[in-house]
Structure prediction request, 87 residues.
Amino acid sequence: MKVQKTLTESELSRVIEMAWEDRTPFDAIQMSFGLSESDVIDLMRREMKRTSFKMWRERVTGRGTKHLALRNEQVTRAYCPTQYKNK
Prediction:
């Protein structure tokens, strides 16, 4: 497995959440957690059920918002302003 960094349970949960988010590019995950796109793919393969992983891969493959090079220049943020609610 390529993932070298040991993540806490909360970090692991956040990486998975970010990987599922449409507007969060893999570059943001790399900046936040030091995991490359291939590391995230390996992590998702390891942590998810096979069918969930397959569904996720189909969802993110070629998705412009997950890859900064493909992203429309009008998309200027990685998350929705209402995404993080105050508790």
User: Anything to note?
Assistant: Helices lie at 9-20, 26-33, 37-47, 50-60. Residues 9-66 form one domain. The first helix runs from residue 9 to 20.
